[in-house]
Write a structure and sequence with these properties.
This protein is of the alpha+beta class. The protein folds into 3 domains: about 15-100, Alpha Horseshoe (Serine Threonine Protein Phosphatase 5, Tetratricopeptide repeat); about 115-185; about 190-260, Roll (SH3 type barrels). Helix content is about 55%, strand content about 15%. It has 9 helices and 7 strands; from the N terminus they run ααααααααβββββββα. Strand 2 (about 195-200) and strand 3 (about 210-215) form a beta hairpin.
Length: about 260
Amino acid sequence: MARLVGLIVILGLSLGLIAQDDSQIIAAAERAYILGDYEQAIALYEQVIAQGATDGALYYNLGSAYYMAENYGRALVNYLRAQMVMPRDGDLQKAIARIRSERVDLQGDDSGFFEGLAAITLSSTTQDELEGGTFALWTLWFMLLTVLIIYRQRAWHNVLLTGLGLVGIAAITGLALTVSRWYVETYTPQAVVIAKETSVMSGPDMDYLEHFVLHSGAEVRIHNVENRWTLVRLPDGRRGWVWAEDIEAVNPEINQAIHQRPE
């Protein structure tokens, strides 16, 4: 498979926001990457993230180290985590597209309604930006409505009415996009297969019938968790159960909750 060429791209990592010890570890990770010691770079980046750092560039760099180590599942997970923080980064979008083109399982767009709606804004805005923009639109709409009621007899009444309609359409659209992102994040969170391959079973146990096999880098949606097994849905609508340790949720908090469930 094609490999990344050249040095790791450092995407504006703000060392001022990171503890001094963490910055030293990051520098060591960058040196290890440059020297081709990708396993060491991975271990050091993981150490910083485990200590609470969530900078998008850290996830990008960790994803790049995993990619160079040919671990495409974990590379994609970390690229998607970086996308949650810096969705408009061009290099990041190219890295995500590269893995999706190279993985064993070819997958199309998600067939779910809310998932498809949420995907519209994934590469253009963060959840916080989307919520803030939607709130601002609704605030503007109510302000225009108030002015329209107070000055309804003025000559520019029709102009205000047109503006109210246009802002209202934008506000409703923003609300729909915001709700879709929230719904998907809450009820059908995204995950990636990190095992080299995993069996998708008809039930939450190896005694059930095997439907098919997924490989590292395949993307799924989590619908349920039972006894360390996860019910997942693929973009094409196929469903089945996979061993929880073989996948990793993109949202770190959800991933931690899944893997800390008791047997």
